[in-house]
Design goal:
By secondary structure, the chain is mainly alpha-helical. The protein contains 8 helices and no strands. The model has no long low-confidence stretch (mean pLDDT 92).
């Protein structure tokens, strides 16, 4: 604990660093003024690239979500990320590209399918143990369905 107060501080600081790495990666060059379809496509591309390249990050984030550290990490780490995504979504609503939805509903439709596909890929299998490897075709097909569900 040379650099940290205690083990809790160690966990929180490492988690914040990892979240900021992911946030920086997915928000780099993200144009919040882009069309909803282009912006969501960009987010899927950047998020999948990051999480496929860093498989332990996803597991780490999953563990943190179900821990007592969740609020400590996310409350101070996501402000820039949240602001960029909120600006993008509000613009899409104002431009009548999508309907206003509660955050949880929007996220469940917009990103949960992507994260599920990435989990299947990391596991090497899908439901029932069927072998699975994420392909661009599967991701594009799924994104097309997500866009169809969200766009007006």
């Amino acid at each position: 604990y040379i650099y940290y107060k205690d083990k809790d501080d160690l966990i929180v600081q490492i988690a914040r660093e990892e979240f900021l790495k992911m946030s920086d990666s997915v928000m780099k060059d993200f144009d919040t003024a882009s069309s909803f379809e282009a912006g969501l496509r960009y987010q899927w591309k950047k998020r999948s690239a990051y999480l496929l390249a860093t498989p332990y990050s996803m597991l780490f984030f999953d563990q943190l979500k179900s821990s007592s550290y969740q609020l400590k990490i996310y409350e101070s780490s996501i402000s820039g990320f949240r602001e960029g995504m909120e600006k993008f979504i509000k613009k899409a609503i104002i431009n009548d590209e999508i309907s206003a939805l509660p955050l949880e509903v929007f996220w469940s439709i917009a990103f949960a399918p992507l994260y599920t596909l990435i989990r299947f890929h990391h596991d090497g299998k899908s439901l029932g143990g069927k072998p699975f490897q994420l392909s661009n075709e599967v991701m594009e097909h799924t994104l097309t369905l997500v866009l169809k569900a969200l766009k007006k």
